Amino acid sequence: MIEKTKPLPGRSCFGLNAANFFQAEMAGVIMPVLNVFLKNAGWRYDALGVATAAAGCGTLLFQGLAGWMTDRVSCRRRLFAAAALVTGACFMSIPIIPHHPIPTDSLLFVAGAAQSFFGPLLGALALGLAGHARLSRTIGTNQGWNHAGNIAAALLAMALVSTLGLNSVFQSVGVCSVLAAASMLVIREQDLDEKVATGLTPAEEHQVKWTELFRDRTVLFLFISVFAFHLANAPILPTVALYVKRLGGSDNLMTATVLTAQLVMVPVALAAGRLCDAWGRKRVMAVAFLALPVRILSYSFVSSPAAVVWLQGLDGIGAGIYGVAIVAMAADLTRGKGHFNTLMGLFATALAIGGVAGPLLSGALVQHFGFRITFYAFALLASIGAAVFLTLVPETRAEGDSDRVWSADPSADQVY
Asked: DSSP state, 186?
């Protein structure tokens, strides 16, 4: 039912796109660079796994709280700005503190906790600006800007590493954190529908009990499949960066592992926003789940650092789709019920659990069994996640929604 129409607010949408861009520039290449930075300082592979897991642990412990808070506060723009500035300060501090596990891992934990707010806040701002009917394509555009930010971060890192060394990458993160925070000033408060941002529609006034969401079998199986997806995916980029170095690749080639994937993610994210409306959420997300085990297994068959970098382009398919489709599925599952951001926090918790356990497992496997066995093990985990998703998660888009796909013209009337 058409309940309200209005044009998309161009200035505020630009501010949201800018926030996605600079947030990605903060986080885009920092973990691969961090691993190489610490390896050059004499750290063991398993210690690198612990460091990566420390950031994931901060995200894990605060992700549920981040989603819950995002549903209940109206100062979402200020909260995002604060999280961005804390993240930047933590990463800027790493090169200037003693290279000891306790202070380094502590900073990574705090940075991970701050970053746990990014996903729910950006999703809520997108839903509050665009409404349900425009959400998929709006998120597709946001994610396109996000991945463009990662590309810019990779190119900037390559230039900085060549001229100023690895330490300069950490300083660039601090600059980008200020720009991400400043992007919130462009989003106008009057353009945000605070009720719609929680998953409600204009016709509903009250959210259902949050326990109703967790009794939904679709939510349960989607959570399990997302957990397996990220358990397999989270440690692969840092591991691939180390693999490139092990094969004799340069620092610039190591940084290019991020760039290759992001070049693919931009068009994939834009296409995913449209295809989620045209094909349905499950068909689009299935491509991401199937691409992951193929990518991970492929690394075990190559021994050239350049070939590894090219294969990393397959990451662009899975990550480009996931960032769009998971928001659309969460919005479907909470439409008219509320708790959209709480559910996004739940899915992000699954991601964070993978971000903690995956690096710990990969660090131990690489240290004791080598890279090839590590790739075999994580390809198997990714296959399990794909099987759960394909067999147990149904389509979440309501029947008839495809008939209400809105115009690609961003100035067209909004339909909630």
From this structure: T
Q: Considering the domain boundaries, does residue 1 fall inside one?
A: no
CATH label of the domain that carries residue 280 = 1.20.1250.20
- pTM score, two decimals? 0.79
Host H or E run for residue 271: helix 251-278
Does residue 5 lie within any of the structural domains? no
Token representation of residue 204: 């509903």
Three-class secondary structure of residue 28 per DSSP: coil
- Interior angle at CA 308, CA 92 and CA 347, nearest 5: 60
DSSP structural state of residue 413: B
Tokens 């810019």, residue located: 152
What DSSP line would sit under 69-84, residue for residue? HHHH-S-HHHHHHHHH
Rounded to 5 degrees, what are φ and ψ at 413?
A: -65, 140
Question: Are 335 and 118 within 8 A, CB to CB?
Answer: no
3-state secondary structure of 245: helix
For the cut 50, the answer to whether the pLDDT of residue 4 exceeds it is no
* DSSP string across 101-142: HHHHHHHHHHHHHHHTTHHHHHHHHHHHHHHHHHHHHHHHHH
Average pLDDT over residues 276-298: 93
The stretch 109-131 carries a mean pLDDT of 91
Domain span including residue 125: 10-394
Per-residue model confidence as pLDDT tens digits over 187-239: 998 888 888 888 877 666 666 676 677 778 899 999 999 999 988 988 887 78
Q: Using the predicted structure, report yes or no on whether residue 49 has a pLDDT greater than 80.
A: no
Indicate the average pLDDT of the chain.
Answer: 84
Structural domain includes residue 400:
no
Is residue 414 included in any domain, yes or no?
no
Q: How many domains are contained in the chain?
A: 1
